[in-house]
Design a protein that fits this description.
Blueprint: H1 4-18, E1 23-28, E2 34-35, H2 39-46, E3 50-57, E4 60-67, E5 70-78, E6 83-88, E7 100-106, E8 111-116, E9 122-126, H3 128-136, H4 149-156, H5 163-167, H6 178-188, H7 201-220, E10 261-263, E11 271-273
Parallel strand pairs: 2-9
Antiparallel strand pairs: 1-7, 3-4, 4-5, 5-9, 6-8, 7-8, 10-11
Helix pairs in contact: 1-7, 4-7, 6-7
Length: 279
Amino acid sequence: MPELPETETIARDLHALVCEARIVGVQVWRADVLRGVDAPELASKVNGQRICRVWRRAKLIVLDLCGANALAGHIVVQPRFTGGLLVDDGALPAELRDYLTVSFTLEDSRQLHYRDVRRLGTLAWMLPARFDAYAGALGPEPLADAFSSHTLRESLGDSSRVLKAALMDQTKLAGVGNIYATEALWDAGIDPSRETRSLRDGEWDALHNALQRILTASIQARGTSFRDYRDASGGRGAYVNQLRAYGREGQPCVRCGRRLIGTHAIDGRNTVFCAGCQF
């Protein structure tokens, strides 16, 4: 957390808010979030550069920086559990200015903050070649036009691996974590503890459709907020109101009425599922 819908929401917001803005200052408050660069190097790399695009790859938020109309490099943020990027025009609530790790001052006096309560996320500076290699090692994007049930099956592999763990492997499938793997498996009616090689053709179709439908719906709702996730303006996501399995351990299944089970035995993460209608 944040997963694909949350990072997509932040990236879209930032692209609308800061694209074409120029960075004129950097303040590193917590250097332990930096990767591949120290504080002085980060300042020297980004000062004077223009943000020419903000986009998402997997669970990463990527800021492309340009100088003299050429791509200079990428600021790559991996928010992990409690990280987020916030645009501060002076009206940002005071409580969201706590836990700042890095702040970029823009030419129009606004600030772009990387905030991370637990500081488990990272902010990296990457030259284009390094980023291309890094991003190339990630799995396919589940909302790409070319992504099909065949792509999903080929990517996860015909193996004995537990299906839910395979869904969350970023080298196999980009952007899906515990929330949306849990929801997609419930929606498709598939037991999360099954081996990937056990799925039949119709089940791959159902899982593919569930993933695309749920991820799209969550983006439309601006993601899922339980506690820490905020969009680029500090707002909360509303998809929490549409969850059918994740976070509902002990409650009745809305499909069959049986009490939902929560367990850490499947993949070490809390998995919620229905033993009555997930097979």
